Q: What sequence folds into this?
C-alpha cells in the first residue's frame, strides 16, 4: 500500500515527512503482561505495510510496571510513543489523550489487552480508503462470557442502534480506524468511548461502516469492567439521544415535553370544570383536580423555560465558534 | 475587580527564583493580630535558612486590621499586601495572591491558628523532595472532642468520594508547587478542599503530621448559618468531583427516585378510578402528580446540563499528562 492509498479519495496534501501516516492508539491500564506482546504484535502487523506508522501507548495511571516496559520499548524504537496520565482517568480520556497526540492522517484505536488483533489494522485502513470516515470492527466470534458480557452487550447495542439509528452492531469493540478529520471533530468525555460511532455520526457527520475482526480471549490480567451499570447506561443513552437528535434544536425536545404536560393537564382541567362549585368554593370542596391541573401547567411552563436556557447555551457556543461543522464531501462538482 | 498592591510593585515573573517560599495569607475576616502571625510563622522559616516572603491578600474593608502589616512591610520585612475589593471568596483571594508570588514553593496559611509554626519548613522540604501538594495533618488530635467530632462528620461525608487518602481536609496549612494552583477550580469556598481538587487533577498529594497549635485547643462552635454554608459547600464539592462531566447521572438518579414512585401512585389511582372509585377527593392523586412532575423536572434539568457539557467539550480536556504543567489544549484546526 502506498501513502496516497492510505488517504483515499479525499486525500489532504501530504503531511510533512517526519509525521507518520498511521497512528495507532491503545490505552493501557495495569497491562504489564500484555504491553510487550502488544508492541511486538503491532510491529509485526504493520512492518509488512508500506505506510509509516507510530504506536501511541497511553498509560492510564497504572500501578504496575506497564509504563516502565513501554518506556524501554519507546527508547529502543522511535515509532513507539508513551503518554503517561497523572492518575487513572479512564479509557475515554486515555483515548482522547492519544488522539490529541497522534500525528498521522489515519488513526486507529484499539484495546491494550490483546483481545483485538493488530493484524486487522491494515484491513480497517484499506476500508477507510474506500471513502469512509470511520471504520468500526465488529467481533465475529466474541470470546467473552455469555451472561455477564455478551447478553448485556447485545441489549445495549440494540438500544444504541434504536436511539441513534447508526447501524453499528458492536459499539463495544475498540478496534476502529478514523480519518483525522473525524477525530478532530469528536471530543470524548465521560464514558463516550462506548458510543464512538454514534457520536462521530452526530457531531462529525462521519460516513461509517463495519468490518468483521478477530477477537481473542483475555490471555493475561483481569477484565476491568464492572457488572452493574444499567442506570448509568440509561442516563448515557438519554444523553446520546439528545446529542443525536436535538443538539441543534433543544427547544423542540423541551417544547414537545411541555406540550405533553399540557395534554396531561387537560383531563384534570375537565375534572375541575365538572366538579366546580363556584369561585368561592363550598365547604369541603377538595381542590384535588384544580391543583393537579395547575401542577401540570407549571411543569409545562418550566420545561419551556428550560428549553430556552438550552437554546441560549447552544447559541453562545455557536457564537464562540467552538463547534466544528461536520465533514462535507463534494460528490458532484 | 481591582487589586491594589502595597509594599513592592507588581512582580515580574522572571524574579520568581529569588525566593524559596511564598507564604500566602488570605485575610477574609477581621483578624486580631496579623503581625503576631507573621512573627510566629516566619521564625522557623528564617531558622531553616529559607528565603521567604509573606503575601497577604485582604479585603479592602479590613484595612484597620492590615495596617500594622503594611507598616512592617515599609520597615523592610519581606511582606507584600494586596487589597481586593468586595465580592470575591476566600479562594479567589488565594488565587490572586498566588499569581503574584515569587516562591518556588507556596504555603497557604489561614489567619487563625491550626498547627504549630515548626511544621512550615518540613512542609517545604517534602515539596522539594518531589511532592506536588503536602497537607499538614493535625495529628495526634489533642484538641477538644467537639472539634474532632466535627472533623469526623466532615470526613465521613467527603471520604467516599475522595477515596479517603486525606485525613485532615479542613487544615488550611498546605505547601504546594505554584503550577498546581493554576489548574484548580478555585472559586467560592472550594479552596477549603484544595487537596481533594488536586487529587482529582492527578497531582501527588501527601500528608505530614503536625502538632496542634496551643491556641487551637478550645472547642469551636459556630452559628447555624456557618454549618449550613459548609453543608452547601460540601454538596457543591461532591457534585464537582463526581458529576461535572455527567450531570444527568446525578439529576437522573434524583429524578427517577421521584418519578418512579410518582408513576406507580398514578397507576394505582388510575386503576382504582377504572374500578369505579372516586378520586376527586384523594390527596394520593396529588402526591402522584407532584412526584411525577418533580422527577421530570430533575431529568430535564440534567439534560440541559448534559447539553452544556457537550457544547463545552471542544475546548476543554479533563485528562492530565505527567510532565506537563499546563492542561492539555485541544488541537486547533487550520
A:
Amino acid at each position: 500500500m502506498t501513502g496516497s492509498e492510505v488517504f483515499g479519495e479525499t486525500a489532504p496534501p501530504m503531511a510533512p515527512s517526519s509525521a507518520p501516516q498511521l497512528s495507532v492508539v491503545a490505552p493501557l491500564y495495569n497491562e504489564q503482561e500484555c504491553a510487550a506482546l502488544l508492541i511486538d504484535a503491532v510491529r509485526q502487523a504493520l512492518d509488512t505495510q508500506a505506510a509509516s506508522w507510530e504506536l501511541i501507548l497511553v498509560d492510564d495511571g497504572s500501578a504496575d510496571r506497564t509504563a516502565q516496559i513501554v518506556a524501554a520499548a519507546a527508547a529502543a524504537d522511535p515509532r513507539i510513543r508513551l503518554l503517561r496520565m497523572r492518575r487513572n482517568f479512564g479509557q475515554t480520556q486515555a483515548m482522547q489523550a492519544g488522539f490529541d497526540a497522534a500525528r498521522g492522517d489515519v488513526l486507529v484505536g484499539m484495546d491494550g489487552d490483546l483481545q483485538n488483533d493488530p493484524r486487522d489494522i491494515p484491513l480497517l485502513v484499506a476500508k477507510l480508503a474506500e471513502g469512509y470516515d470511520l471504520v468500526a470492527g465488529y467481533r465475529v466470534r466474541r470470546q467473552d462470557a455469555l451472561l455477564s458480557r455478551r447478553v448485556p452487550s447485545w441489549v445495549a447495542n440494540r438500544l444504541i442502534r434504536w436511539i441513534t439509528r447508526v447501524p453499528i452492531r458492536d459499539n463495544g469493540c475498540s478496534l476502529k480506524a478514523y480519518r483525522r478529520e473525524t477525530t478532530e471533530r469528536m471530543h470524548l468525555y465521560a464514558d463516550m468511548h462506548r458510543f464512538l460511532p454514534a457520536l462521530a455520526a452526530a457531531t462529525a457527520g462521519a460516513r461509517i461502516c463495519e468490518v468483521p475482526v478477530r477477537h481473542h480471549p483475555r490471555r493475561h490480567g483481569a477484565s476491568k469492567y464492572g457488572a452493574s451499570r444499567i442506570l448509568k447506561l440509561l442516563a448515557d443513552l438519554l444523553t446520546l439521544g439528545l446529542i443525536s437528535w436535538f443538539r441543534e434544536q433543544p427547544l423542540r425536545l423541551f417544547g414537545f415535553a411541555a406540550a405533553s404536560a399540557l395534554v396531561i393537564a387537560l383531563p384534570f382541567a375537565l375534572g375541575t370544570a365538572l366538579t366546580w362549585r363556584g369561585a368561592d368554593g363550598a365547604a369541603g370542596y377538595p381542590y384535588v383536580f384544580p391543583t393537579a391541573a395547575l401542577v401540570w401547567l407549571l411543569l409545562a411552563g418550566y420545561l419551556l423555560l428550560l428549553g430556552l436556557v438550552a437554546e441560549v447555551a447552544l447559541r453562545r457556543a455557536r457564537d464562540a465558534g467552538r463547534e466544528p461543522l461536520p465533514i462535507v464531501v463534494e460528490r458532484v462538482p | 475587580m481591582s487589586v491594589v498592591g502595597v509594599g513592592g510593585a507588581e512582580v515580574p515573573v522572571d524574579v520568581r527564583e529569588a525566593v524559596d517560599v511564598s507564604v500566602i495569607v488570605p485575610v477574609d475576616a477581621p483578624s486580631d493580630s496579623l503581625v503576631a502571625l507573621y512573627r510566629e510563622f516566619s521564625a522557623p522559616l528564617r531558622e531553616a535558612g529559607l528565603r521567604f516572603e509573606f503575601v497577604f491578600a485582604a479585603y479592602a474593608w479590613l484595612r484597620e486590621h492590615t495596617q500594622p502589616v503594611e507598616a512592617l512591610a515599609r520597615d523592610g520585612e519581606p511582606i507584600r499586601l494586596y487589597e481586593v475589593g468586595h465580592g470575591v471568596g476566600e479562594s479567589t483571594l488565594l488565587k490572586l495572591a498566588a499569581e503574584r508570588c515569587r516562591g518556588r514553593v507556596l504555603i497557604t496559611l489561614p489567619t487563625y491558628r491550626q498547627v504549630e509554626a515548626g511544621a512550615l519548613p518540613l512542609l517545604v522540604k517534602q515539596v522539594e523532595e518531589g511532592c506536588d501538594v503536602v497537607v499538614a495533618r493535625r495529628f495526634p488530635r489533642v484538641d477538644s472532642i467537639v472539634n474532632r467530632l466535627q472533623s469526623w462528620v466532615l470526613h465521613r461525608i467527603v471520604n467516599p468520594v475522595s477515596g479517603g487518602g486525606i485525613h485532615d481536609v479542613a487544615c488550611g496549612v498546605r505547601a504546594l508547587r505554584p503550577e498546581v494552583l493554576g489548574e484548580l477550580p478555585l472559586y467560592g469556598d472550594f479552596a477549603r478542599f484544595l487537596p481533594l481538587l488536586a487529587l482529582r487533577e492527578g497531582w501527588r498529594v501527601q500528608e505530614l503530621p503536625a502538632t496542634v497549635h496551643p491556641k487551637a485547643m478550645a472547642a469551636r462552635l459556630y452559628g447555624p448559618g456557618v454549618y449550613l454554608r459548609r453543608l452547601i459547600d460540601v454538596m457543591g464539592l461532591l457534585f464537582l468531583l463526581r458529576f461535572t462531566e455527567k450531570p444527568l447521572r446525578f439529576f437522573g438518579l434524583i429524578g427517577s427516585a421521584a418519578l418512579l414512585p410518582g408513576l406507580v401512585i398514578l397507576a394505582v389511582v388510575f386503576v382504582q378510578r377504572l374500578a369505579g372509585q372516586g378520586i376527586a377527593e384523594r390527596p394520593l392523586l396529588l402526591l402522584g402528580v407532584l412526584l411525577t412532575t418533580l422527577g421530570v423536572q430533575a431529568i430535564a434539568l440534567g439534560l440541559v446540563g448534559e447539553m452544556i457539557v457537550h457544547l463545552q467539550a471542544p475546548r476543554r480536556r479533563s485528562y492530565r499528562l505527567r510532565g506537563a504543567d499546563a492542561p492539555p489544549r485541544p488541537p486547533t484546526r487550520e
